[in-house]
Specification:
Oligomer: single chain
Largest sheet: 2 strands, antiparallel
Helix content: 25-40%
Strand content: 5-15%
Number of strands: 2
Length: 82
């Protein structure tokens, strides 16, 4: 089934299904993945470079979700002192 941002079939387009009594039709649409990635980068979300790379690949190609420790692991140099 199509999804926006988390493709499971290596097709990064968004999509939807039209269901009728006789058929199910899958429709695919292009969307600006680079704009989404740029918006995430400009959002001010506190992410490190590894997380940015993961988000980019996840939106563009899909992937299985990482464990929480894998997704949010930061190297000591990336951590803010406080």
């Amino acid at each position: 089934m199509p999804a926006c941002g988390q493709p499971r079939d290596n097709d990064p387009r968004t999509g939807y299904a039209i269901v009728s009594e006789k058929e199910v039709r899958i429709v695919r649409l292009e969307y600006d993945i680079d704009a989404v990635i740029g918006a995430l980068a400009m959002s001010g979300m506190p992410v490190n470079e590894k997380q940015k790379e993961y988000l980019h690949n996840f939106l563009r190609y899909g992937d299985s979700l990482p464990t929480q420790s894998q997704a949010f692991r930061t190297a000591p140099k990336d951590r803010k002192q406080g």
